[in-house]
UniProtKB/TrEMBL annotation:
Domain of life of the organism encoding this protein: Bacteria
InterPro entries, per the entry: LexA/Signal_pep-like_sf, Peptidase_S24_S26A/B/C
Protein name according to UniProt: Peptidase S24/S26A/S26B/S26C domain-containing protein
Gene3D superfamilies per UniProt: Umud Fragment, subunit A
Position of the signal peptide: none
All copies of domain Peptidase S24/S26A/S26B/S26C, residue ranges: 7-116
SUPFAM superfamilies tied to this protein: LexA/Signal peptidase
Native organism: uncultured bacterium (gcode 4)
Amino acid sequence: MTAITLFEEWVSAWFSSFVGEDDSYKISLEQYLIERPSTTISVRIKWESMIWAGILPWDIAIVDTAKIPFSWNLVIAILDWVYTIKFLQKDNKWRPFLKAANKEYWDIYPNEDLSIYWVVVGVIRKYV
């Protein structure tokens, strides 16, 4: 397992900020993202239904197949034999539905063919 340096200071996306002399410690991405290695898988993201949540095509979702999904969890579901990534929500009658993070995609109120398979615990992206 490789550990990389994590700076304890937050990096501002607005104004530049002062960096201290040694505001860092080691972090393992494996330990940070993977709570249970035996039940964790990764899934490549396709399409643009979650772009407002910061999830883009070609990102990799880190998924825990043993976590129990709750309302507002980001989940991988299967609907009509197709996998999809959406937010799990419940309406005012407590019926579950799937919500995209892009207004171009509609809410999905499934029939009995919906299965919530996995809970997404993280998303990673490589830029270069």
